[in-house]
Amino acid sequence: MSVELPTAARMRQNGEIKLEVDIAPSSSAESWQDIRECCTEDSINNNENVQTIAFLIDEGFGSSWVAGMQKKLNMSGRYVKDNAFCEWLNTVEDKIGTSRVTNFRMTRFTQQITCPCTLENIVIGGGTATDGAPMTFTIALNGKPTITTVSESSSGTGGG
Length: 160
Prior knowledge:
Blueprint: E1 18-22, E2 32-34, E3 39-45, E4 48-53, E5 63-69, E6 72-78, H1 84-92, E7 101-108, E8 111-124, E9 134-141, E10 146-149
Antiparallel strand pairs: 1-2, 1-7, 3-6, 4-5, 6-9, 7-8, 8-9, 8-10
């Protein structure tokens, strides 16, 4: 006899979404690093440019459409010693210009988004002496991302 799972048991988990950053952007060979080991939370904002227009024929009621966007991921976590991404992030925190421009890849279930990005607002450290060193940064996608379909197993661990 099969058991029907409740909706809560079928929810996707954030840990299934794989987030990767290329830590060798100026090299001919990419070096993708999974950043989930040191990141505990993210919030995604599409930063949409919405056009709203009310035509005379619509008697004052408007219509809207999304005319553009720049997806940004606000990340937070802890600095993990010997983690390649954390060590690289530490080297670019106090630099400006192109040193923070790299590539980003997010694999979310059956969709992979790849795009050049700029790492903004990098802050490492702060807090109490006994706490793990916190880190925050923003991944700002630059331009139109490439979106491809991937197999379900390409995402994170999948749990379950």
